[in-house]
Design a protein that fits this description.
Layout: H1 44-51, H2 61-68, H3 79-82, H4 94-102, H5 119-129, E1 130-131, H6 137-153, E2 171-175, H7 177-180, E3 185-187, E4 190-192, E5 195-199, E6 224-229, H8 244-254, E7 258-260, H9 273-287, E8 288-289, E9 292-293, E10 298-304, H10 306-316, H11 326-334, E11 340-344, H12 356-359, H13 378-391, H14 408-411, E12 417-422, H15 428-441, E13 446-451, H16 474-490
Parallel strand pairs: 1-13, 6-7, 6-10, 10-11, 11-12, 12-13
Antiparallel strand pairs: 2-5, 3-4, 5-7, 8-9
Helix pairs in contact: 4-15, 9-10
Length: 491
């Protein structure tokens, strides 16, 4: 289709280059977004203003949820999103999760019929898991145009990623390997392995060294930290290349410092390099904060796409270390279990074996499915590319490569977990099947949210493929609020 040029977005202070090259639609657990979010009180006004165009009549999440006893932050959301259900372990049914990804993409607007289950119970669980899609004509048009631009670009969603980022007053502190002890590496003659602290505006807050309270101006203790793993199929991107629009927003909306690491990538460094680096970073962030050496109180793991898979791999390494060097296995066993973890569009199955790789394949004659993966045969390409590029000679069914194959004994040991995924995603099963298995195993705390009509790592497209400023795609902002609510509940 012929489209007008994208409107210019003026970032703060300048645009971040996005020309990273064509992503092979292959093992592509492509760059996406893990978003943790909860607006600190001092940031609420800015986010409420940014979102107000979405629904002038909708109450803010703060107003609505105070009435319901569940405060989520000050972002004004469309009414169809403020009504989205929130559920804990009891509201999620393994059989329902499996039914959702086996349905065609356009079908799951009504609850499936599950043999042996009360239809009323299934319908209630379905509404708790499924987050509504845009209900107004304007929101539908925004989503349709975003999908069209994704399809037009045909680059795995790279060109359409958000451009705007909070360069000021957010503070970014680069950490070279000689400071962190992380493994240095290089690509195309450029030194890599540089992590960065991304600090929210005003951090550390004046009262953040004491225990959080309902009257505090902050949400978390100064010793609470997020460790973030970026996506990109274990091949692309870095904290400073493609991810600052996300990590600066993450820090400012949570009020938490975010440590984003530049883990080693394939093909130069195949498995288990990324997992080794993740475990090293987890050990380091437990003992070091933005102000230097100091033990963490709470560590939250976050990751999108391949980074989501890496979150799960790092958690499972403590209990299923097969395939890892002995020193890494010992380190994983010694590290305290993170307080909680969040995955967004997690890439948990390198074998691409489950339903959504068939039900969410992009259809040209009747466009539906994942527009990020609208070229080629992702399942076939993933089998070839991931073997050659990332897992090499290792079995793709190792739990630290494909966490979906972890044992029940390992899955039930996971910390509180929130998993967000789009209903249109090719990798929908990587979340729903993993979650179903974890529930079957007896995981103590697991929340799953499936966003109707959303594609792979949609929160990285808050600008709706450059149709407007941040917040143009309300579902992207809602995902941030959902994660923020989860972290607030856990803290």
């Amino acid at each position: 289709d012929s489209l007008p040029p994208d409107p210019a977005i003026v970032p703060r202070p300048k645009a971040v280059p996005r020309a990273i090259g064509l992503l092979t639609v292959a093992a592509t657990a492509r760059c996406g977004s893990w978003a943790v979010a909860r607006a600190a009180p001092r940031l609420r006004a800015r986010y409420s203003t940014a979102m107000s165009h979405s629904s002038a009549e909708s109450p803010s999440c703060v107003q609505r949820d105070r009435r319901g006893g569940h405060e989520v932050g000050g972002i004004t959301m469309p009414s169809h999103l403020t009504d989205a259900g929130r559920t804990g372990r009891r509201g999620v049914m393994p059989s329902l999760l499996r039914a959702i990804d086996s349905h065609p993409y356009h079908a799951p607007d009504t609850a499936p019929v599950l043999a042996g289950h009360d239809p009323v119970e299934v319908a209630a669980a379905f509404e708790n898991v499924m987050v509504p899609a845009g209900a107004t004509e304007g929101e539908t048009a925004v989503m349709a145009e975003t999908r069209r631009r994704l399809r037009r670009d045909g680059d795995g969603g790279t060109a359409a990623l958000d451009r705007e980022w909070d360069a000021t007053p957010t503070t970014i502190i680069p950490l070279t390997p000689d400071v962190t002890g992380f493994v240095p590496w290089e690509r195309d003659g450029v030194a890599r392995g540089v992590a960065e602290w991304v600090l929210p505006e005003g951090w550390p807050f004046p009262d953040a060294d004491g225990p959080p309270s309902g009257e505090s101006s902050h949400l978390h203790h100064a010793a609470d930290r997020i460790l973030f793993f970026h996506g990109g199929a274990y091949v692309y991107f870095s904290p400073s290349e493609g991810y600052r629009p996300f990590t600066t927003r993450l820090a400012n909306t949570t009020g938490l410092p975010v440590l984003a690491i530049d883990y080693r990538l394939a093909p130069e460094h195949p498995y288990p390099a990324a997992v080794v680096d993740a475990i090293d970073a987890l050990a380091w962030v437990n003992a070091n904060g933005p102000r230097g050496a100091g033990a963490a109180r709470n560590v939250y793991l976050c990751g999108d796409s391949a980074g989501g898979g890496l979150v799960l791999a790092a958690l499972l390494a403590k209990h299923t270390p097969a395939g890892l060097p002995a020193a890494t296995a010992a380190a994983a066993a010694a590290i305290p279990t993170p307080t909680a973890a969040v995955t967004l569009s997690a890439y948990s199955d390198l074998t691409c074996a489950f339903s959504s790789y068939r039900t969410r394949t992009y259809g040209i004659d009747e466009p539906h499915g994942d527009f990020v993966f609208s070229v080629g045969d992702p399942a076939r390409d993933a089998e070839v590319e991931s073997i050659a590029c990332y897992h090499g000679k290792a079995s793709p069914r190792l739990p630290t490569l494909s966490p979906i194959y972890a044992s029940a004994d390992a899955l039930k040991m996971l910390p509180p977990l929130l998993m967000l995924v789009g209903d249109a995603e090719l990798m929908l099963s990587d979340t729903t099947e993993f979650a179903a298995r974890a529930l079957d195993a007896g995981i103590p705390s697991l929340d799953v949210k499936v966003y109707r009509r959303m594609w792979h790592v949609w929160p990285m497209y808050s600008e709706a493929a450059h149709q407007g400023p941040r917040g143009t795609l309300p579902e992207a902002e809602h995902a941030m609020v959902e994660i923020a609510s989860f972290l607030q509940k856990i803290a």
